[in-house]
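Justification of resources, computational component.

The compute hours requested in this renewal are based largely on the per-chain cost of generating structure records like the one below. Each record pairs the submitted sequence with a full structure-token output. That output is archived, and it is also reused by downstream analysis tasks.
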Amino acid sequence: RATAREQLMRWQGAERLAALLRNSDLLERPDFREGLNTLGRPAWFFGLNDLRDLPPELRARAPEWLVLLGYRPEQKRALLARWSEVAFDELRVAAEAAARAMAQGPECWAVDGSTLAPREDGA
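The structure output for this chain reads:
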């Protein structure tokens, strides 16, 4: 388990990030979401800026992964703010939704099958 964690921490590049984002259905599992926070601050997004090298459907999933990872809140907000200003509608909309959900606190985060969003029930 430690070896897999170490490998995941060092993963970089669009191809490896795409491989993770293709498995976004895992985010529907509470144990998996909680486990992402233990990864700390992996290198997955380094050097990818606006994620232009990813297909649109995967670009839209990046914000929910970011919010669930162990980055400091100010780091998450900074990257979400940057993604909220990009030319890609799918990334911009997902980043704005993730920022709203993050502002409400982790107890309000819900994965609705397509993106991280504030919970409708307020729970």
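DSSP finds seven helices and two strands in the chain. The mean pLDDT is 85.
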